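Deliverable D2.4 — example input (C-alpha cells):
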C-alpha cells in the first residue's frame, strides 16, 4: 500500500506537468537562455583568460541548479493541496506520512528529470563536449540532485502557510544561491563573509557534485571543482536526510493542528 500511494502521488504530479504546455515551455526556456547567453558571453569574454570552457562550466551549473530548484519549488504543490484540502484527504488515509511526502518529492523529481534531459540535449546541439560515459555517469547524479532539491523544498514549505508566501520567499532563497553556489562563476576565491554564506548554501553541493562527475579525469578538474565527489555525496545524503525528516515532521504537525 505504501509503495502504491507513493507511486500514485508521483504520477499525479508528473501528469499535471505534462498537461500544462505553458509550464513545460517556461521551464525549458530560462535554463537554455542561461547556458546560451550567459555561458556564451562569458566564454567569449573570459574563456581564454581562465583556461577552461566557460560554456561547459555554465552548462553543468545550470543543469544542477535547474533540477535542484525545479524540485524544490515544485513542492509548492504541498501548500496548494493544503489550501484545496487535498492533503487533509490523503493524510487521513492509512498511509505513512513519509510515503506521502516522498511521493510528492518523487513526482517533482520526475518533472525535474525531464528538464535535465532537455538541457543535456541542448548542450549536445550547441557543441558542449559530453561523452556517452559522462551522460551515463551523470544520470544517478541528476536523480540525487532532484531528490535533494525536493527534500529542501519540503523543509521550506513546512514553514510557510500560503502559496503567496511561498512565491515571495522562494526567489529570496534561491536567487542568492545562483552566485554563492557558483552556478555561473567560480567561487574559489570569495571574500570570507561570502565564503561562509556559500558553504551554507545547499545548492553549492549539488552544483559541485555535478561538476565533479562531469570533469572527472579532466585537466580542468582542479580549476572548477571545490570538493571531491565523495565528500559532496556524503554532504548531500546527510542534508537530504535532515531536510526530509525535519520537513516532514513540521509539515505533518501543521496538518494535525488544522
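Example output (designed residues):
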Amino acid at each position: 500500500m505504501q509503495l502504491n500511494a507513493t507511486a500514485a502521488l508521483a504520477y499525479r504530479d508528473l501528469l499535471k506537468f505534462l498537461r500544462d504546455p505553458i509550464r513545460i515551455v517556461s521551464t525549458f526556456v530560462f535554463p537554455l537562455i542561461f547556458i546560451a547567453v550567459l555561458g556564451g558571453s562569458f566564454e567569449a569574454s573570459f574563456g581564454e583568460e581562465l583556461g577552461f570552457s566557460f560554456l561547459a562550466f555554465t552548462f553543468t551549473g545550470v543543469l544542477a541548479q535547474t533540477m535542484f530548484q525545479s524540485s524544490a519549488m515544485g513542492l509548492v504543490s504541498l501548500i496548494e493541496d493544503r489550501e484545496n484540502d487535498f492533503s487533509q484527504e490523503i493524510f487521513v488515509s492509512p498511509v505513512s506520512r513519509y510515503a506521502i511526502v516522498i511521493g510528492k518529492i518523487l513526482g517533482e523529481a520526475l518533472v525535474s528529470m525531464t528538464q535535465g534531459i532537455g538541457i543535456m540535449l541542448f548542450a549536445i546541439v550547441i557543441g558542449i563536449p559530453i561523452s556517452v560515459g559522462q551522460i551515463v555517469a551523470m544520470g544517478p547524479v541528476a536523480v540525487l540532485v532532484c531528490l535533494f532539491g525536493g527534500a529542501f523544498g519540503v523543509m521550506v514549505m513546512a514553514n510557510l502557510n500560503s502559496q503567496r508566501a511561498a512565491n515571495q520567499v522562494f526567489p529570496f532563497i534561491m536567487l542568492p544561491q545562483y552566485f554563492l553556489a557558483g552556478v555561473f562563476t567560480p567561487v574559489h576565491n570569495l571574500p570570507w563573509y561570502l565564503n561562509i554564506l556559500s558553504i551554507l548554501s545547499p545548492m553549492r553541493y549539488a552544483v559541485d557534485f555535478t561538476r565533479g562527475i562531469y570533469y572527472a579525469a579532466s585537466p580542468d578538474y582542479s580549476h572548477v571543482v571545490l570538493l571531491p565527489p565523495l565528500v559532496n555525496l556524503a554532504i548531500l545524503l546527510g542534508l537530504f536526510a535532515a531536510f526530509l525528516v525535519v520537513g516532514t515532521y513540521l509539515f505533518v504537525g501543521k496538518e494535525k493542528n488544522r
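The mean pLDDT is 81.
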